[in-house]
Input
Amino acid sequence: MLTRRRLAALGGILGSSALLQRRPGPGSLLFSPGSAAEPRKPLASPFVVPFTRPLAIPPVLSPVSSDESADYYEVTMREGQIEIIPGTLTTVWGYNGLYPGPTIKARSGRRAIVRQINNLPESMSIHLHGGHVPPESDGHPHDLIPPGFFKDYNYPNNQIPATLWYHDHAVDATGRHVYLGLAGFYIMADELEDGLSLPGGSNDVPLLIQDRLFNDDGSLSYPINDETIVEGVLGDRLLVNGVIQPYLDVPKRKMRFRMLNGSNSRSYSLALSSGEPLIQIGSDGGLLTQPVQRLPINIAPGERIDVIIDFSRYLLGARVGLTNRFSTEPGLSQVMEFRISPGEPDDSVLPATLRAVEHIAEELSVRTRRFVLADEVVNGRRVWTIDRKLYDPRRMDASIGLNDVEIWEFINNSYSTHPMHIHDIQFQILDINGRKPPAGDDGWKDVFQVPALGRLRVIGRFANLTGTYVFHCHKLEHEDHAMMGQFEVRAPGN
Ligand code: C2O
Ligand code: CU
Output
């Protein structure tokens, strides 16, 4: 059921003039929000020649201090100016004014405290995506930092190391905030992983893949309207770490790439132009039991894949493209280019076994919950629902006992794929339309692609932490309009 409060809220969000009033800030300077009443104009970003700029690698953030119990970090959310389209400056909203934000490197079992200072004109909430963190540090969409305020986020890092990311999660505004640049990597490691001798240092490269739409003056265009609420806001230029279709000079050896689809709504089917498979070693929640060769790998918004590419099999000077098979347009089919340069001694190894993923037996599950995903017309506009409900912070959609193992089944009654994301813990996919997930998607996952008109089941144990978390579609326009629910993990006796 759609609650009255939520309906009123949606009316406010979707009403064309209310949109600008509700959302103070630079407005037209940064975005052309588009009016719900106007037909969509054909939009095209300025042309940029691919592979003319080198890949940028976000700086690693140093702690401001450290003691026996934790490392302390400080980040300021503020506006920044970046040259993305040659000859113009793009205003971004970034962590430390950077797009992408600085990378935080954490150790499993060692606490990190991140002070987030909000020097932007709107309220923000920071979610550590993939993190197993107490609810008050999870970036609940209503746990907002108003402009001029700060919040200390407490990350225990008590989990299997993985490629996580942090991004904005403010209610109704997540899509626009992330689009403007509020996303960064949070990479965790431990001794077991160090001991594997995978490619490290400068041979371990994070790749944030996003699509964007630009106005002629280089500003970001975020057209939200009836159509993009349904289809998602889709750009016509691909950026990796904030650079349009970059190139990277790579040594003739093995390298590790942590690929993150940080796009608002676009999915990619990633492959190498050489036709060689990618060697996947990890998924959202950490390393796989063993490496798996895949060609291509489909990655939806919010998902991460950890891959090894062995450039020693190519000739010096060769160029190998990372391509997106979901598109044939040059601006969207060519993600980036690797240029093989002279090698360096490669002492890294690709072990036959990485980290054993202990499978959670279906028999351990104490209940199966079903959630139906659908689009519905509310107030004359098509929006997204879970069990026919729009997100409402006062409603609890599931109450779970601490340490319970549960199966969650998502039934998709729409023609759109929904990459569903559940906060708090890591899951394993049991089946997709009744079939086992492909190798590579059978490890730890926190985003699951629920196919159009299909169904998917995941299993997970709600261990260690109690309190309120959210789950939602990671197409950010779907999340904001308002495909999200809440669950609570209860301590025994509560
Ligand atoms: Cu990456 Cu609740 O989101
Ligand atoms: Cu969705």
The first helix runs from residue 4 to 14.
